[in-house]
Write a structure and sequence with these properties.
This protein is of the alpha+beta class and 127 residues long. The chain has 2 helices and 8 strands; from the N terminus they run ααββββββββ. The chain is 17% helix and 41% strand. The longest helix has 13 residues.
Length: 127
């Protein structure tokens, strides 16, 4: 025995409802497709044995400033800024305070690390 549906909706009505529902998704798709603004510069803070944030994105010709803020006096923690990988930049030796700025003229992914702390790594993405 075939059970009759209590809700009788013509096929054309179902197609029309699906078409209207899909139109509601168009603004979401358009909003996510627009390009994001890329910053001219960024700051990375060395704190808690980490680069914060670990990845920054800047536009070509922009700069990144690293600031050492991992303790002071007897509690100071030393860090290096050492460029690694294919795309390189000039880094620094061990410091416990101060700042260092690099201007990036070519697009690419610039990886770096602290040679004193395993796993303390970061990346500059230049667009």
């Amino acid at each position: 025995m075939v059970k009759k549906s209590l809700l009788r909706i013509p096929h054309w009505a179902l197609v029309a409802m699906l078409a209207v529902a899909s139109l509601a998704l168009v603004p979401v798709a358009l909003a996510t497709a627009q390009p994001r603004q890329v910053a001219r510069s960024a700051t990375v803070v060395l704190r808690n044995i980490a680069f914060n944030p670990s990845t920054v994105t800047i536009r070509r010709g922009g700069s990144v400033r690293w600031e050492w803020r991992d303790g002071t006096g007897l509690a100071a923690v030393y860090h290096t800024l050492t460029s690694i990988g294919r795309d390189r930049f000039s880094g620094t030796g061990a410091h416990d305070s101060g700042s260092y700025t690099v201007r990036f003229l070519r697009p690419g992914r610039y990886a770096y690390e602290c040679m004193l702390h395993v796993g303390m790594t970061g990346t500059v993405i230049v667009r």
